[in-house]
Amino acid sequence: MGHLAQSTYVRASWVEVVVPGMIERAIIATLAPIRAEFREHQELITAHGLALDDLTVRVEACKKELQASFEIPLATMTENVVMLDKDAESDALETDEEELGARDAIVYDDLEDLEGVMVQAAVEASLQDTSIVGSSRVKNREESSTNAQIEGVIDM
According to the lineage, what is the superkingdom (predicted)? Predict the structure, then answer.
């Protein structure tokens, strides 16, 4: 009987050693495709990150070029400016503040007209949407209720 008990203990200890290894191998086998897919996605993310960095550098370079080429001169000049032609003749240019004020007034009037047109278009679109929603051919509640039919029968 002692020999049988010892073999049971040996088997139990062998199971205790083997089962964790079996579980670990099953987990590794299950996770292998997931890890491979994860590596592929990680490579794609890295590639996109490099492309994004390259694009950012190019955009920054374009911004610097645009700022250098599109420097805006001062809109209003308060002093006389003297320019020399090819013939060395000087032309005195003076920006008249009244002309600038008139030009600004025209621009603001055009903006007000544009705003009015935009508001009118929005109102018309809203009215059109409302008329489409309202025309669902639903009868009035009084006409479609059962009370209306009963009242007609009673009046006869």
Answer: Eukaryota
User: Hey, is 70 helix, strand or coil?
Assistant: coil
Distance of CA 125 to the CA centre of its chain: 25
DSSP for 106-148, written as a single string: HHHHHHHHHHHHHHHHHHHHHHHHHHHHH-S-PPPHHHHSHHH
Q: pLDDT, tens digit, for every residue of 127-138?
A: 776 655 555 555
Neighbouring residues of 84: CB distance < 8 A, sequence distance ≥ 6: 90
- In Å, what is the CA distance from 36 to each residue of 23, 39, 45, 91, 129? 20, 5, 14, 76, 53
With beta carbons less than 8 A apart as the criterion, state whether 82 and 91 touch: yes
Strand pairing partners for 90? 84
pTM for the full model? 0.30
pLDDT tens, residue by residue, 48-95: 999 999 999 999 888 887 776 666 555 545 555 555 555 555 444 555
Count of beta carbons in the 10 Å neighbourhood of residue 100:
13
